[in-house]
Every structure is written in structure tokens, then in C-alpha cells.
Design a protein that fits this description.
about 425 residues, 5-stranded mixed β-sheet, Cytochrome Bc1 Complex, Chain A, domain 1, single chain
């Protein structure tokens, strides 16, 4: 058995994987609650909650929490994305019991102190300002905002300056009360620990978690045609060419992932070799295939000097269409790299915790790494051709940040890429 999962009487799911060779324990609490659950009035609340759970409970101050993990030499952090919020800890085995107690305390007993809330509001506003100063952040945020305009995936994870300024303590508490409930939580432990012991620790410390279930909230979403451009006085222009991709339940997501790898992942990829090595048009270029619950995106991102834009678009368009001929050696190279990457990640119990937690939460089963590798191995060249044809017949979007005077119209760019 790759990993074990038990659903407790209160609805909490406890997942564990015993690996005797690891000298530390990775603990993760994943909440099925991210920015996708927000609306235009409380955008950013999931991320705000994540910050505030570090800021004190009924019996611990923010400093107490920080000092606890520093004193034991542990690592404690969290992140929020569109689909979920994750709190993760890495500690020595003897500190797992006390670490889980602290983690359970912040999730069940945070006070959302008004003074701390105002201080953290300022921190988050600084975080938003930092993103607005970075072109590579801006272009991806605006890409999502436009392709999913007026839909839950289009809102920024951090929220906006306006929504964060207006966020109240009640907004945060209401979000926690609604979504930080037993049916929405997966607790994962990876390391030299028996599954029965992991269950015992969870039963001991998460006794006050609200027993409740929430209805499925990830409604169908529409990928929209978008053309975003923001003029900025930069030395380079940042370009993102985007296509509608596949969600994480689509069986063809594996073939699209391999197609992306051959096209623009790594120094041996076609785009890197043709656009950078042969022509010197960019410093870096990459393609990506992202899969989330309700949707997916396929894109190509690069930054370059404005006078290279015309040639760059022609070359990238040509290389993408040339994917209708793929060589077996390319397939083998990419599959070997994916296999090696997954194999090397298995040296990390943090990776295992995130992997098996996501498997349990999204698929209600935990496939082994070998099973995932087999999915990639099963992809044929004909599968790639089929995925390419689907990709190039779907909605095309474009985003640019920088000096815009050399960038063609949307229709001129689209006609280079889309097959009518």
C-alpha cells in the first residue's frame, strides 16, 4: 500500500505514509478552501485567514507560536492558492505530538485579535504592492483576471487593495466557520510513523474541529478570449501566449504535459534551442500546462527587448505548429526527465505529504508515484498530435507588460497560432 487513509467519526481524513529512512516528520493540514470560494466583496479573505492563523490563539501569542518552532528547530509555513489553503510543518519525530498540538490550536482556537489584524492588513498590502512592482507577477495575475473575468478563478489570490482595506474580523471568522470544517480537511503525516499513531495524535488534538460538510462549490468555468496590455517603461516587454488547457480530471492532461515539456521545458526543449540558443531572441523562455479543479491553461512566457517581438512571435508560432511532428527520441527524453524528477522528489517527505494529500482530497484515492509515471509512459506520439490539434482550435489569449509599440494587434497574433 502506497499510503493509508482513515476517515474519523467526525469526518476528518487522516493520511499517512511510513518511510523509516526519513529522520524527520512532515505534517500537513490541507483545507479545501482557497480564493475560488470568495466573491467580489471578500476577495483575499482566504489568504488573510492564512496570515492571521499565525497571530495568536486563546492561549498563545504570535511570538509564542514562532518561538515554539524555532526552539525545536522546526519549519512551519503556509500558502493559499485558488483551490486550497495548506499549513505545513517539518519537525523531528519526538516533536510531532507537540507540533500537532500547536498546529491544531491555531486552526481551532485563533482569536483574530483586532490589533494583530490591523498590523497584518498592512503586511498584506505590502505584499500586493510588491507583486504590482514585478512584471512577471503582473502578467500572470492579469492573464488569469482576463481569461476568467467575472469568475472565481479570475480574482487575485491576495485580494485587491480595496478589498483588503475593507476586510473585517467578522469576514475572516465567517470564512473559517463555513469552510474550516471536518469534511474539508485532510491531515497528512509522512515519516517514520505508524498510521495508528498518526490517527491517535489527530484524535487527541483536533477534537474541537467543527463537524460539518459543505456542498461542492467548484462550478463550471469558462476560459475567455483575452487581450491584456499594460504600458510600462521597462527595458524588456513581457509576453504571455495562452490557450485553454485541461483540468486535473481530464485523462489527456498527461499528453498535454509531455507536449509542453518537449516544446518549452528545459535546455533541450525546442523553444529554448530555437529561440534562445539559435537566434538569441530571449534570455529565458518556457511553456507550461497547468491543471486545476475546474479548468486548465497552456501557455508560453518570455521577456525580450521590444525590437525582437515580431521575429519572436513568428518563431514561436512556427515551433508550436511543428509539434505535429514529434520524434521518438524526444518522447523518450522527456519521459525519462519526468520519471527522474518524480524519483528525486521522493527524497523529500514534504513532497510526499503534498502529493498524497492532494491525491486524497481531489481524487479520493492515492495513486503511487509509479502509477503516475505509467500514465506518462502510456502517452503515445499520436496522443500528442491529438492534444495539439485540440489546443490550437481552442480560445487564444494574449498578455503583454512593457513597451507596447512593437506589438501587433490581437487578431494578427491570434492568426499566427490558432487553426481555424
Amino acid at each position: 500500500m502506497f499510503a493509508e487513509c482513515t476517515t474519523l467519526d467526525n469526518g476528518l481524513r487522516v493520511v499517512s505514509k511510513k518511510i523509516e529512512s526519513f529522520g524527520s516528520i512532515a505534517l500537513e493540514v490541507a483545507i479545501d478552501a482557497g480564493s475560488a470560494l470568495e466573491d467580489n466583496t471578500n476577495n483575499g479573505v482566504a489568504h488573510f485567514v492564512e496570515h492571521m492563523l499565525f497571530k495568536g490563539t486563546k492561549t498563545r501569542t504570535a511570538k509564542d507560536i514562532a518561538c515554539f518552532f524555532d526552539n525545536i528547530g522546526g519549519a512551519f509555513n503556509a500558502f493559499t492558492d485558488r483551490d486550497l489553503t495548506v499549513y505545513h510543518v517539518k519537525v523531528l519525530p519526538n516533536d510531532l505530538d507537540s507540533s500537532m498540538e500547536v498546529l491544531a490550536d491555531i486552526i481551532q482556537n485563533s482569536t483574530f485579535d483586532e490589533k494583530e489584524l490591523e498590523l497584518e492588513r498592512g503586511v498584506i498590502l505590502q505584499e500586493i504592492a510588491e507583486c504590482h512592482d514585478e512584471p512577471s507577477d503582473i502578467i500572470f495575475d492579469k492573464y488569469y483576471e482576463n481569461i476568467y473575468s467575472n469568475q472565481y478563478y479570475g480574482r487575485p489570490i491576495l485580494g485587491t487593495v480595496n478589498t483588503v482595506k475593507k476586510m473585517t474580523r467578522d469576514d475572516l471568522i465567517n470564512f473559517v466557520n463555513r469552510y474550516y470544517v471536518s469534511s474539508n480537511i485532510v491531515i497528512t503525516v509522512v515519516g517514520d510513523i505508524e498510521h495508528s499513531n498518526a490517527i491517535s495524535y489527530v484524535k487527541k488534538h483536533f477534537i474541537n474541529i467543527k463537524k460539518d460538510s459543505v456542498q461542492s462549490k467548484y462550478l463550471p468555468i469558462q476560459y475567455k478570449i483575452a487581450d491584456f496590455r499594460e504600458e510600462r517603461d521597462l527595458q524588456q516587454v513581457h509576453l504571455l501566449l495562452g490557450f485553454e488547457g485541461m483540468n486535473q480530471y481530464d485523462k489527456d492532461r498527461y499528453s498535454l504535459g509531455i507536449l509542453s515539456s518537449i516544446l518549452g521545458s528545459g535546455m533541450s526543449s525546442r523553444l529554448f534551442q530555437e529561440v534562445r540558443e539559435k537566434r538569441g531572441l530571449v534570455y529565458g523562455i518556457s511553456s507550461f500546462s497547468s491543471n486545476s479543479i475546474a479548468t486548465g491553461e497552456f501557455g508560453i512566457y518570455a521577456s525580450l527587448t521590444p525590437d525582437n517581438v515580431a521575429e519572436y512571435l513568428d518563431v514561436v508560432s512556427s515551433e508550436l505548429k511543428k509539434m505535429n511532428v514529434v520524434f521518438q527520441e524526444e518522447m523518450t527524453r522527456v519521459k525519462n526527465r519526468l520519471k527522474a524528477t518524480l524519483a528525486m522528489k521522493q527524497d523529500s517527505n514534504v513532497f510526499f505529504a503534498r502529493y498524497i494529500s492532494n491525491m486524497q482530497m481531489r481524487y479520493n484515492e492515492i495513486k503511487s508515484i509509479d502509477e503516475v509515471i505509467e500514465k506518462y509512459n502510456a502517452v503515445t506520439i499520436d496522443d500528442l498530435y491529438e492534444s495539439l490539434e485540440i489546443l490550437l482550435s481552442k480560445s487564444f489569449s494574449f498578455a503583454a507588460v512593457g513597451k507596447l509599440d512593437t506589438i501587433p494587434s490581437y487578431n494578427e497574433i491570434k492568426n499566427k497560432f490558432i487553426i481555424n
